[in-house]
Amino acid sequence: MARGGETRDGGGGEAHARTGVDKKAIQDAVAAILRAIGEDPKREGLADTPRRVADVYEELFSGVHTDPMPLLTVGFDEEQHKEMVIVKDIPFNSMCEHHLLPFHGVAHVGYIPNGRIVGISKIARLVEVLARRPQVQERLTSQVADMLMEGLRARGAAVVIDATHLCMTIRGVKKPGSRVVTSANRGIFRENPSTRAEFMSLLRRS
Ligand SMILES: [Zn+2]
């Protein structure tokens, strides 16, 4: 998408210059869904719904057009610290790309620096940007780990994500309360079982 200006697609919708999300197209689509389920999108309670959904989607999908790599390039050189850094319980909300229903939970992120560290808020923001896309939990987990390796040139990265998926709890098999746990290990966390074990034992500590 064009930077610094609005883009126009073939349908005549306008993508927001900053988020890249075409809210007018979302509004039209939501009105069409309401008609398709047999509702009247013009009735009082629904009249503003397409606009509200467009606002929500703009926020929830703001990561589609955001490159998270600059978050990590503002890291600072720190030759002395070569020990494990762990940021636990980072809350996130994402959207399952199979059903466009939310999944949410916490991410635990660890890495071992190789001369460069980054502010803790940047790690939380990295998770947020990657979560605000149509996602699957496994890919979100891998992407956080891969970004840390690439952006910080870390010696290793480990990510555990623990989440609840609305598509599992409100439909189909209906398993309320069930959680999905995924993990990704890179570099020394993959090569060295004791490093991985240290990470896991630090996660268990409250
Ligand atoms: Zn799903």
Structural description of this entry:
The chain contains 8 helices and 9 strands. It has 206 residues and is of the alpha+beta class. The longest helix has 16 residues, at 137-152. The chain binds zinc ion (ZN). Zinc ion (ZN) binds at residues 96, 98-99, 101, 165, 167.
Give a short overview:
The chain is of the alpha+beta class and 206 residues long.
Sum up the structure in keywords.
38% helix; 9 strands; 8 helices; five-stranded mixed beta sheet; elongated; binds zinc ion; single chain; 206 residues; alpha+beta; two-stranded antiparallel ribbon; disordered N terminus
Layout of SSEs?
Layout: E1 7-8, E2 14-15, H1 23-36, H2 49-60, H3 69-73, E3 76-77, E4 85-96, E5 101-112, E6 116-117, H4 120-131, E7 134-135, H5 137-152, E8 156-165, H6 166-169, E9 180-187, H7 188-191, H8 193-204
Parallel strand pairs: 4-7
Antiparallel strand pairs: 1-2, 3-6, 4-5, 5-8, 8-9
This protein binds zinc ion (ZN).
Residues 96, 98-99, 101, 165, 167 line the site of zinc ion (ZN).
Structural class: alpha+beta
Task: Name the overall outline.
Answer: elongated
Number of helices: 8
What is the terminal-to-terminal distance?
A: 44 Å
Q: Radius of gyration in whole Å, from Cα?
A: 20 Å
Low-confidence stretches: 1-12
Instruction: Please give the largest β-sheet.
Output: 5 strands, mixed
Q: Can you give the mean pLDDT?
A: 89
